[in-house]
Specification:
This protein is α+β, with helices and mostly antiparallel strands and 726 residues long. The termini are far apart. It is elongated, with a radius of gyration of 37 Å.
């Protein structure tokens, strides 16, 4: 039997440097026990010798002093940085245990104690908050001071010590810090900025590590953070993990089984195709992170509800996957990242057992797959003095979709890497829930929509039932009126269905499509009148106009809907919660109204030199052009407040602008019929024909002498039958 070899009295004084030891052999082994002080325990357990004169932080155990010492320290040397990070980590763990050990007394005990005990409780909360602030500041300084390359470089073994930074992050984002984080974020602290900065720092050290001789495969597990770091050539990683990489890879490492037990049987997992790694001959770095409790304190701003977080919460753990320097994103278009996420609320119900029914849980309408975007711009509604203010960063569903969803979990598919989670939305996920309008506004608006819808339907029926009105100009007006009816009905329905967000999404689509169609038909009518005056063309284009009038808005709305997952989530059912979405409706309509106004004014300036020579037709088109000019002015007048209201150009008077737009908009149908219908001599004659005949018989007048029909013909030749004045 080979004798057991051992070293005695070994102490580590530096990286790979050991002193004060002797070697020996033995064939018998006897143990003895001796109580060791806390200060000397690390000596006997192979820790670093803490010699205050030589230690970079003077062996201090006071977090405040450590924070002050960091200001003057030079951490460009790898050994100094590792010693500092390891020391601060141990001190942070000891401090957190010390604070956690001081529990608040129960209510019965509170009633028996005086003001001195209450002061102790206040001091305890202040101490916890102070420790958290100091630890956050320490992590920020460590990240800043060690962001550059180390001297003489980072060996793969060094990452084990450097990544002890994750233990500090684990303490900072532990469940006991949830309420404190709410207070800190109210004071301007940003948890996600801190988290992503540590992620970027960890990735930079992984990129900096020397993986030419030895590949990196490191799994770092802490109380609340799991980090897996890989560095190798893509071909080796593909060979090892093909066709998919899984994170966490349960079953391959017993450490994951231990983590699952500690985290209550966690089952979240990502599946990433190895083809995304590319074919580079240079080593690539992969870093995956999995957070146990960060979802309880993560920010909730998102592209759907903006900064309004009422009733919204993250209902899954947060998980991330990153590849540097680059990855093949095109691969994920056909073979996306699959993310399996547990519903934490439902899981807590199961853990609570029968008592779950007694606790009122938040209501959930839907869960959306979300990816954190550092570049997402969200309007900052808290800064009313600056309408252009935006908050950078937020959750977005862009590029992600739900593959499957049950009561207990949701499976997501995403076309990019990043940080992912599920956001649970309440039954009414709104960016801004506008108060109900005053009664007078509701009545005036309702009366306007009702009259507009009724007289528009009458106008459509009159044109449809009068063959004399089936000319090109009135067929354009017929389609314009149909689009106006669809618009008015959609707006009228908003007042009754705005709180049903799925119906609201449908109404948003109707408003978007019919209003754009109305604007396009207005331009078509302007173009037709222009062609009639300038070229003398008054017929033969209706089929082309039909394709443009109904097809162009359909294509535009289809593109917007297909590219926008949060389409329709807006308090007044106006396209969406963001300015960009509402701009897809407001801006085209405003420019259409202005263009139509300018175009009609140009036609009015040429009324004295028409290509048409028959006086009756000139009078008809002359009158129609003037009425179109007035309608364009009304349309522009509607969308000036509309542009201000829906693009939120004046947030201080936002409700006033919206009321103005809604009132003007509700009477638009009345304006259309009065200006395009009653304002047309041809329409008046065709509709009032029987009354004119009655007047002729009654008064036996020769001045009123209608015949049978008035017909437009194509080209320059016109045939006039039955015009009402001879």
């Amino acid at each position: 039997m080979k004798p057991l070899q051992l070293t005695i009295g070994c102490r580590r004084t530096g990286k790979n440097v050991y002193n004060d030891f002797v070697r020996g052999k033995l064939d018998e082994f006897v143990t003895w026990q001796y109580k060791v002080s806390q200060e000397n325990a690390s000596f006997f357990l192979g820790g670093m010798v803490c010699n205050p004169p030589k230690h970079p932080m003077k062996c201090s155990t006071d977090i405040k002093k450590l924070l002050e010492q960091l200001d003057t320290m030079d951490l460009t040397n790898i050994d100094t940085a590792m010693t500092t990070i390891q020391h601060i980590t141990e001190v942070s763990k000891a401090a957190s245990k010390k604070v956690a050990g001081k529990k608040k007394p129960t209510s019965t005990e509170d009633s028996k104690k005086g003001s001195a005990e209450e002061d102790d409780d206040i001091d305890l909360e202040e101490m916890k908050k102070g420790n958290l602030k100091n630890m956050i500041a320490i992590v920020k300084k460590l990240v800043n001071k060690t962001s550059g390359p180390f001297s003489p470089g980072v060996d793969p073994e060094d990452l084990t010590v450097l990544y002890k930074m994750q233990e500090m992050v684990s303490i900072i984002f532990s469940e006991g810090q949830t309420d404190l984080w709410k207070e800190l974020e109210a004071d301007g602290e940003d948890s996600v900025t801190l988290l992503t900065s540590v992620q970027d720092w960890s990735m930079s050290k992984l990129l900096e590590s020397k993986a030419t001789e030895k590949n990196v495969d490191l799994l770092m597990l802490t109380e609340n953070v799991a980090t897996q770091s890989l560095k190798s050539e893509p071909k080796e990683l593909k060979k090892k993990y093909a066709p998919y990489m899984y994170f966490p890879d349960y079953g391959k490492d017993p450490k994951w089984d231990e983590l699952r037990k500690r985290w209550g049987g966690s089952a979240d997992q990502m599946r990433v195709p190895v083809a995304v790694l590319g074919d580079s001959s240079e080593p690539i770095s992969i870093q995956s992170m999995y957070y146990n409790t960060y979802h309880k304190m993560a920010p909730l701003q998102n592209s759907i509800t903006g900064l309004n977080a009422t009733g919204i919460f993250l209902d899954s753990r947060v998980i991330s996957f990153g590849v540097k320097p680059t990855y093949e994103r095109d691969v994920l278009t056909s073979d996306p990242v699959i993310i399996f996420l547990e519903h934490q609320l439902e899981k807590q119900k199961l853990l609570r057992g029968p008592s779950a029914e007694e606790i009122e849980d938040p209501k959930i309408e839907s869960r959306e797959c979300m990816r954190w975007s550092d570049t997402l711009e969200i309007p900052d509604t808290t800064k009313l003095e600056d309408p252009t203010a935006v908050k950078i960063g937020g959750w977005t569903p862009e590029g992600c979709s739900r593959v499957n969803s049950t009561e207990l979990y949701t499976t997501c598919a995403c076309d990019s890497l990043g940080m992912f989670a599920l956001i649970a939305f309440p039954p009414v996920p709104k960016k801004y829930v506008e108060p109900e309008d005053e009664t007078w506004v509701f009545v005036l608006r309702g009366l306007g929509y009702s009259l507009s819808i009724i007289i528009l339907i009458c106008y459509i029926s009159a044109i449809a039932m009068r063959p004399a009105l089936h000319d090109q100009f009135h067929m354009i007006r017929l389609n314009l009126a149909i689009a106006a009816v669809g618009t008015m009905l959609s707006f009228f329905s908003v007042d009754f269905k705005r709180h049903d967000h799925e119906v609201c999404r449908v109404l948003s689509g109707f408003i978007h499509y019919f209003y754009l169609s109305l604007g396009v038909w207005l331009c078509i009518l302007t173009h037709a009148l222009f062609k009639g005056f300038i070229k003398g063309i008054v017929d033969g284009r209706i089929n082309f106009y039909l394709l443009i009038g109904w097809g162009l808005p359909l294509i535009w709305v289809g593109i917007v809907v297909a590219s926008t997952p949060n389409y329709g989530y807006e308090d007044r059912c106006m396209v969406g919660p963001t300015r960009a979405l509402r701009c897809s409706l407001a801006c085209p309509l405003f420019f259409i109204s202005v263009a139509s106004l300018i175009w009609s004014v140009v036609i009015c300036c040429n009324l004295t030199t028409p290509q048409i020579k028959r006086e009756e037709v000139v009078k008809e088109l002359n009158c129609s052009t003037k009425m179109l000019c007035f309608l364009s002015m009304a349309f522009t007048g509607i969308w000036i407040p509309g542009l201000v209201a829906w693009l939120e150009l004046d947030k201080v008077n936002l409700r006033g602008w919206r009321k103005l737009f809604q009132i003007f908009n509700s009477w638009m149908g009345v304006c259309i019929v009065l200006l395009l219908g009653v304002g047309s001599r041809h329409f008046r004659n065709a509709v009032l024909l029987k009354y004119i005949n009655y007047l002729k018989k009654l008064f036996h007048s020769n001045e009123v002498n209608p015949s049978s029909r008035f017909v437009y013909t194509n080209g320059y030749r016109f045939e006039y039958k039955n015009y009402y004045y001879q």
